[in-house]
Structures are given as C-alpha cells and as structure tokens.
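Below sits our specimen:

——
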Amino acid sequence: MTFEEALAKAEQGDHLSLDASASLLAARGGNLRAMMKVADQKRAEQVGDTVTYVINRNINFTNVCIKRCHFCAFSDDLRSGSGYFLPLEEVVRRAKEARSMGATEVCIQAGLAPELNASKYLKMTETVKNAVPDLHLHAWSPEEIKHGAKQSRVSIRSFLTELKAAGLDSLPGTSAEILDDRLRRRLAVGRISTAQWIDVVQTAHELDLMTTATMMFGHLESAHDQARHLLTLRQVQKETGGFTEFVPLAFVHHQAPLFTSHEGVRPGPSTEERLAVYSASRLILGDVIPNLQVSWVKEGMSLAARILQAGANDLGGTLINESISTAAGSSHGQRQTPQALTQVAQGIGRPFQQRSTLYQPIADSSSSAWGADYGSFFDLRKDQRFAYHSTGRPSKSARVSMSQASPRR
C-alpha cells in the first residue's frame, strides 16, 4: 500500500493494516508534513484543542536491580557500591511533600532489588496510601508486578487484587519497550515477555485498574516493528478499554549500554522519526486511545510544542524527580513547573487544563511551595543515608534471574 493510500484511509477513519500503519510510521519529508496536518485535525476531532497536564511526582525508590537491561542506564548491580534504596519513611515524606506542592498523583517505580516481594510492594502501597489518601497512587510496572508475584509465588491476579485493596489506583504501562520477543531478547535477556506484559495489563483492566501504554522507539526496531506494537495495543484496548493514554518514549542513547557496546543500534530517533511516530500513533490509535502524551523528558520543551501540533494533546506531568531518562543522558531536566507546562500550550495558542491521572479536568492545585530543587538522581546515588545494603541472601527466584541476566559489556 502506498503512503497516499494509507493516509487517505486514516483520514477517513478506516482501520489500518500492518503495512498501511508501517507506511505512515516511515513517512519523512513532504509525506510527514502531510500526515502531521491530518493527525492534528484528528486530534481536534477526537479530544479538542485543550492541552492537558498532571501535577505529579516520581519516586524511583531504588536503582538496584537483578536485571541487566541493555537499554537502561538507571539500574545498578547490588554489589556496585552506587546503589541506593529509600526507606519507607523517606518514600512517605516525598509523597507528603509532593502533596504540599499541589500534586494529585505520585508515581512509584524502581529497580528490581532482590529482596522485593509481594509483601514489600503491598506494604509500601498501603503505607503511602494511608499517609496521603487523596493522592492518586500510580505505581508498579508490569515488570514489577511479575517480579513481586514470582518472588512470593502468587498469581498475577491475586497480587493485583491485593494491591488494589491496599490502595493502588492505577499502573504505569512501562516495561513494554517493543512488544516483539525477537527484539526483546536483544534488548534484555530475561525481561518480561510480550505475552506476560499483555497478561499483566489485561488482568489489571479486568480488575478495574487502568494503565497507561508505552513504546520505546529509535533503537533496533523497524517501522513494521513499531506498527506491530501499536496494533497490539489497539487490540488490547478494543478488548478491555483500560488504557488511559499512549506515551511514545524515544530511546535516550548517550549512557545506555545498548548503544555504547552493541553494533547496529541507532542513536535514538531523528526529529522526523519522532514526529512520524506521534502523528502515526494518533491515526492508528486515536479512535480507541484518544490521549496521546508527549514525553518532555525525552523531547525537550521546544520539540514538545511541535509534537502538540502533530497529533498529541497531553504534556504529561511535572515529575519533580525524573531519574531514568536523566541517567541515560537526557538533558531536558528532571522536573517542570505547572507554569512551564502551561507556557508551552500558550506558545502555540492552545488552551490548557490541569487534569487528574484518569483525565478528568480539575481546578489548578499548584502551590507556591516549589523551591529551586527537590533532589537530583546523581545526588541521591552519593547520599550515604540511602546507600544500599543487602538485607540477606537473594531468594532462589532472584538468584535465577541474576544468573540469566546478560552482562553489560
């Protein structure tokens, strides 16, 4: 199918095949500009002109991980000497501080430390929720759900059921990368499989736990791989309706072992590829997942503004503490103020609106409590108060995962 035929079908609202979707994702030059225009029109039809954002805080409470994912520069081996692990009281303190700054959401994700199991995830969930009950608790990636369930030998469904009862409100749909096991084996041995990722999010949706959906692009994958990923998300959404948003995540290559020690890896996507992925995502997914989020951490504020004119409608969150992209070499900062996010919308002549995690409009909740800095990832790694100390011999399950993890060269 030609690009022109694929774009015409998308403009008419027809379902796109794998080849048609790949044709859109591969668009560059004049074809890309034509697609961006159509994507912007579809965005206006599907969600209107308002640019949304959420005031939230990330709490990545440990960088210690039993996995050695080649694309990740955030995690540390438990014997590296630069691992950290925030105690529960510090996690709670950060959640309370975020609330005082006007946050309506706290997002908790971390490395897979060997001692983490279902009971520890449940304890953190319950403690944070009890301490700040009016904060939406958005936590635990599918990889963490798999890890906690495996460590404690419980089913995914029973673990998610307990987490919901403990106060979990929704899950981040990270650890998706590219939903193709051939590529996943090159990205990280022992990583959650495509089928397992789908099982976790579908089970969450069945339990009325909404999730986001993501895709990491600009590394080993082709336009057809990207298309396959998007169509997989589309099928899940048609079956469950549980995705709140789709977030394309550009690969940050600077410090990633995948790029520094593996041949044939792209140094992240070009600007044209970034615009093509966002525009094509609007045309492929917009009728079933209407919210398309720009990751300002990956793109920067200037490119984020362009992407908002190419199909996207959401600027994500303030984050307050961003660690994972920063560790990989992103230079776009570790937080944005609500004012900075609204200025992006104002700069392109669009209205803006603070939202909840589940995309309900809410009144401006920002406060004047924002200071110059609320702790950087690099400072945290050097803070001896939070230095990681193993709590004992890893479980058999963790030892198996560590033995299967491919070394970083």
Notes: The CA atoms of residues 252 and 330 lie 6 Å apart. The first strand starts at residue 51 and ends at 54. The radius of gyration is 20 Å. Confidence is low (pLDDT under 50) at residues 397-409.
